[in-house]
Design a protein that fits this description.
Layout (H helix, E strand, L loop, with lengths): L2 H5 L3 H5 L4 E2 L10 H14 L9 H20 L7 E4 L2 H16 L5 E4 L5 H14 L2 E4 L10 H7 L4 E7 L11 H10 L3 E5 L11 H4 L3 E5 L10 E5 L1 H6 L10 E4 L4 E3 L13 H17 L1 H20 L4 E3 L8 E6 L4 H10 L2 E2 L1 E3 L4 H6 L5 E5 L6 H19 L2
Parallel strand pairs: 1-13, 3-4, 3-5, 5-6, 6-7
Antiparallel strand pairs: 2-8, 7-8, 9-10, 11-12, 12-15, 14-15
Helix pairs in contact: 3-11, 4-11, 5-6, 12-15, 13-15
The structure holds ligand 7TS.
Amino acid sequence: MDILKIRNDFPVLRSNSNLAYLDSAAMALKPDCVIDAVDDYYRRLGVNVHRGVYGLSYQATDLYEEAREVIAKFIHASFDEIVFTRGASASLNLVAQSYGMSFIEEGDEVITTPLEHHSSHMPWMNVCKMKKATLKYVPLDKDGRITVDAFKSVLTKKTKVVAITHVSNVMGYITPIKEIIQLAHEVGAIVSLDGAQSVPHMVVDVKDLDCDFLSFSGHKLCGPTGIGILYGKKELLEKMPPVEFGGDMADTVYEQEMTFKNSPYKFETGTPMISSAIGLARACEYLNSIGLDNIGKHEYYLKNLAVEELKKIPGITVYNPDCETGIISFNIDGVHPHDAASVFDNDKVCIRAGHHCAQLITRHLGTIGTLRASFYLYNTEEDVKEFVKAVKDAKDFFGQF
Ligand code: 7TS
């Protein structure tokens, strides 16, 4: 990977050459090709899809539907298994609201984990409360990992849904998901996989994994904000009811009766996020042109480099030194993560602090929050140096008090 060439594709990095942007797990920066694609839609077309009976609208519809095709290929799905949503949170909620509220019954069991982002397990907590079903959590091992054996310990014939993360946004661990999906299917359960932190960083093949649903956001994979994807197996999407009603998703409407379009359109109510869908497709093509395997290896290399340096600094706790991805969660002993983060900002090092919308795992770690650095394709060894220097500066600064 030619990192300097890659960095040159990102306007934010061109105009802030001394910035160490280490918050890509929250949001990735955008390359020119994505910004240009969004700009091009507004300048050249800027009209609605699916409804105009004129050339510009046909062109906009073609671009929008071609984007669905590109994104489907990116995760090895079919065109009609891709639902456009507002983001991963909306996708995860859609599965719970539609599938969960229709097919979960009193006494059923839903399995989730303490590693989930709130958007993955909270929608199922709601379904379980409404339906008098039981929400069970996979016990984590001593490092905070989900293991296949621990999953087996909570799986029963009553399990109907498994809502689980592919990669933890706090610990960066990769879930042994293929075995878990196989075991879930053996008892007839479906698996809703949260791919928000996996799809931008590794090849995710929904056919190979055999997951039933996969949710992710565009903005974490160099795409625009306000767009996400719900992949669902066609036979499941077809039997699920819509949760929003109105424009574009309706087929025929009478005073007391209504029918809907087929999936995915029955889940896409109103004017969609046209420019964001087009931009997201360009982002997928951009990442493919670099290679997701190369990106994953690069992030992992930088993460290890940084962890080795952090280990040399006394008074630093790294919670996930052995994770397989590009995420480091750590704390400066005795310093509140939000206080520490403000010193990083002075050093032009962008990291995130807090519970990362995953309170169960931060509580499991025995802390109120962590500092989190996350690497992506545009980060360099120089960024690692700046990061380690900022950790030392923060430690020295708070050491005075
Ligand atoms: N699932 C995971 C694993 C996530 O990391 C996030 C966002 C979401 C779901 C929700 O995505 P959204 O696009 O709908 O917000 N995670 C983070 C984070 O770690 N820092 O900021 C957002």
